[in-house]
Hints:
Layout (H helix, E strand, L loop, with lengths): L3 E7 H4 L15 E5 L1 H8 L17 E9 H4 L26 E6 L3 E7 L3 E8 L2 E6 L9 E7 L2 E4 L20 E5 L3 E5 L4 E6 L3 E9 L4 H22 L18 H19 L3 H17 L9 E4 L10 H5 L8 E2 L15 E2 L18 H25 L8 H8 L2 H16 L1
Helix pairs in contact: 4-5, 4-9, 4-10, 6-10
Amino acid sequence: MAASPGAITNADSALGGGEKEAPQFETACNYVEATLEEFLSWNCDQSSISGAFRDYDHSKFWAYADYKYFVSLFEDKTDIFQDVIWSDFGFPGRNGRESTLWIGSLGAHTPCHLDTYGCNLVFQVQGRKRWHLFPPEDTPFLYPTRIPYEESSVFSKINVVNPDLKRFPQFRKARRHMVTLSPGQVLFVPRHWWHYVESIDPVTVSINSWIELEEDHQARVEEAITRMLVCALKTAENPHNTRAWLNPTELEETSHEANCHYLNGAVSAFLNHHGTSEVVGTQALRTNRDCTVKEELDVHSRVGVEQAASHTVSSGTVKQEAARPFGLDLVPVTPGSQEPSSERGGIFENDGEDFVSKNGKSFRKLPNTKRQRMMSESENAVVEQIASDRTVALSQTFVSTDDLLDCLVNPQVTRLVAQLLIQGRSM
């Protein structure tokens, strides 16, 4: 594999479960360009190593090459695309061309975030990864932020493996789901589920593919609004230091002119997709709002792991299989279980008394009416979140750009702005 850039950071402060309470964002990482051979040599802790990793002691740092598109990595070996097959999950023709590669060392992780576009299929090739997942309705309890900025990624202010509960008390209400993904297993991550992912073996290799959804058309408008606001305010604050707030993976131009063009393109694409009449536009917006309320009540409300193995299906299970779009082997990941999980067997793990249940009881699926009421309570928690943020900073006499951005580009706010903007343009 040709040389490719990857993040490398201090393991003492970044390993999951360490003493560091702030998330390890990519803006705080160092970046090196290295070959896969150089990474593996360094990861074997060869003391005489030279090249890109020579300044990084393997015992003190971890490295992660993430988000590497197959089309870029293997542009001269396109036949390899056919070796990645997603058709078994209901996506015929989808292969490596629409996939990305992730390679990491022990301790490498991505901070807790949600993806604004699509849903996600992740295939574990080598090593194990531990996933911490939170449902979309827990968003207010995760304290969302768009700093650092990366298109389609809403980060949490919390280090979910070592949370600062004095600063983020609402996080106690979040319902954590945990699963350890082993080689040969596939994880389905529904739309807008938060996730923190950590490598727990010396070398981990994963392949994923983001699946486009109908809701992505409006989400692109929301992202364009976010991009314009973040870039305008943060550039005005410090025009010469974009690294402080712009994720290194974000390579697109951030000028106001470019962002205006991007916003107009997103709105035009939405209107072209749904039709430009007032009736069609309003109906499309209503559909999007309904999807927001219902997304936890349908197939997207299930997180599951599917073992990549063949099984004989009896005729008596045909109807049951038809009701499961991802096959019989899809197993829901629940917040807790009646029996403690075994460290030797099984892939599911209970979370811990602070985050699942203090009395050890498991959560049960709420009826529709209770779930909708719970979502309303979550919306109220946004105000509580902002208030708790302010309580910590009572001694400050000003509202920072980041404070303003956390309100302006809160996912609930950008969703409303996008709906109003589209509705106004469609009339």
